[in-house]
Amino acid sequence: MVGIERKSSAMGMEIGSDSAHVGGLSDDEVLTVARQWVVRALSAATQGDQGHYLNLLKSLKTVQLDDPSSLSALQYRLKALAQSVSYVSEHYHHMLLALVLGMSVWTYGPEVAEALLEFVVNLATANGGCVSQCLDMLVRNFLPPSCGIPAFLDTYSRTGLMGGWLSMDKIRAQQPDQMASKDIVLSQLHSAIRHLADLVPTAPMRLQPIVLQKMPHKTLPKQWNVLYLENMLRLESSGAKYISNQMLPAVVDQLIQIDVEIRWEDILTEEDTGKVYMFHMDIEDETDERPIEDREADENENGDPAGPGIEAKLQYGLMPRSLKGAVPTLDEMADKMDLMMDMTFQHLQTCDKKGLSSQIFDTLAKSFQSTILNTYKSKFTQFLLFYLCSLEPSSCGSRFASLLCDIFTAKSRPSNTRMSSAAYLASFIARAKNLPVDVIWTSLRRLASWCVAYGTHDVGSRPTGNVPDSVLHGVFYSACQAVMYILCFRLKLLADQPDGKRHLRGLHLQQIVDHRLNPLKVCLPSVVEEFLKQASTLQLVDQKHWLASKERIDGNARSMVVGDVRLDMFFPFDPYLLRHSDRFIRPNFIYWSMVEPLDENATSDVEDEGYDSLSEASSYAGSQLDEVQSQAGSYESADVVTPDGERENFRHTLDVQDSENYSYIERHVDTLDEASSFCDDGIVESFKLSFDAMAITPPQPEMMMPAKLPAKVSLNSGFRI
To answer: Which parts of the sequence are annotated with region: Disordered (predicted)?
Structure first.
């Protein structure tokens, strides 16, 4: 024992050798000596003697990563600290805590990482005052120091930067080595988090806000956003009590932040822009054209001081430009969103295989109501619910439709929320491929009966003053548009059901379209025209509406604004345009090209109720469009034929027109002006090609078409396939 005590006086230099022994001692004896030395240093600091304590700090800081004996010595010291946490005081040993909790499990190898995590878990268990610090350390290790983000730099990196023997370039150069051990590191890290959560009851409640605050800034490279998301989903899948149901809402919040930065045209690659006819899908007066950095400044000033990613936002704002790097372009934001959505879809798929769909739906439904529903610029995040419902259409799909109906019919909800829910319901019922027919019927009946009841009881009971009908009755118009939109996609299916035509007549569609508030004038023209075309074929509405639709739908109604929502622009489950993660959506999605046309002899099965016969005008627009499409040519969804005959890849969900075909459409603009155009697997299903709405002058016949179309094209009517 005397020999061990003599050895303990020089532990700072002697622990660690290739044989893992000191002076012939076994591993256990070396650990015993190390623990005695650590306890002596901690006790001395408590009594005011800083000598041994400073030696301990120095030994922890001076580590040579390329020296196995140095790493072995660090491992023993950390193990000794893990067995001595009862001697650690926040007051007397704050420098030690800052140093050790500032270490990274990515830096030193799996053996040192195991000892470090053992210390963290033991410290949190023994000292309740250190729980938050320990959780902060674990979350900071979601990313390696080589990411270069200041919030994720470790003690080794900071010491090297201050000492001048490390630079940010050298730190980032460690990325390949650190990422090579990702699976091992994350396995150790999340095992420690689960263990800590089991031992400390308050840990899960403290963990969520830390995870939210440390989210990487949305403009940082996609690999770090994706890696952080992977850690969040690992927490969600951990099975640890109170943790597994906390992370998915945070994932939704992170996705929404990136989602709203993306505009439709930003999904195009540079090589696509000369070949793809792309409509500007954002509402022009709501589009913020300022650089991302300027918008971030406003968010930092006006945002929630404790909201998601707030630490990253503040640190990003304080970072010098040399550390920020180039601000990513918005198509890079789309790629980032694509990868993150793909990873989240995989997580939902795994949860479904484990029988957790119902539990996950409850969590996502809450996030939908609190985050997604009223985020008008959300384009992709809502597809998490769409995909989950496609996995379990009879349960989750039915519950989602019922939830949307409940929100829409709740008078206590704000009008904009009710209108959004109607749009979501219409888009979901129209697009979800495997949705049970009874869910479609139930949703349609609830919407249609509400519209009829509104017409009977609500119209004359409200003071109008100078408030336009479009504002006062916006919820009504949204419901009418939802009914028509659903039937554009589902009328054939419903009519072919047993007693389908009788049930369709029970929706009282004629009463809705004849309403004195004129829903046909306010709702989206392309939806109105296609609905009237199909419904009049089955004699569900008087075909006079179809004949008169072009006169009734004037230019002003095409850009009608109802509150903050434009009825003619909002279909949340329009085609999914992220090409990688689309693999989860496409098999479960109804494109317009998949909708079967009504049987030409459908009217023969309908009882004669005094309707006028259809005129040839009902098919005029479609036939004219077919002519234009046949001239323009048909392209496969996987590639595009360039003018020189070569085939090139492009994003399959976009409508492709080369300059020659675009010129052809321009020459036939009068024909297309009121046409109901539904293109196969393109971005635009129905649109009015209105050059008055574009910020350009239509080219004269003798002028050549530009190789690249204007970036700003306002689309005032139409929905996409």
So the answer is: 287-311
Q: What angle do CA 485, 488, 491 make, to 5 degrees?
A: 120
Is pLDDT above 90 for 540?
A: yes
Q: Which residue has the tokens 């002697």?
A: 14
Separation of alpha carbons 717 and 340, rounded Å: 31
Three-state SS for 282-344 is CCHHHCCCCCHHHHHHHHHHHCCCCCCCHHHHHHHHHCCHHHHCCCCCHHHHHHHHHHHHHHH
Place of tokens 């033991």: 122
Structure tokens at 256: 């929404």
- The amino acid occupying position 263 is R
Q: Are 18 and 68 in contact (CB under 8 A)?
A: yes
By three-state DSSP, how is residue 148 classified?
coil
What confidence tier does 327 reach under pLDDT thresholds 50, 70, 90?
very low
User: How many residues in total does the chain contain?
Assistant: 721
The three-state DSSP-derived secondary structure of 512-569 is HHCCCCCHHHHCCHHHHHHHHHHHHHCCCCCCHHHHHHHHHCCHHHHCCCECCECHHH
Percentage of residues of the chain with pLDDT beyond 90: 53
Q: Is residue 647 helix, strand or coil?
A: strand
Cα–Cα distance, 595 to 492 (Å, whole number): 8
Q: Exposed, middle or buried: residue 601 (CB in 10 Å: 0-12, 13-18, 19+)?
A: exposed
Query: Which residue's entry shows tokens 């005052």?
Result: 129
Residues sharing a CB contact under 8 Å with residue 633, sequence separation 6 or more, in sequence order = 641, 661
The structure's pTM equals 0.74
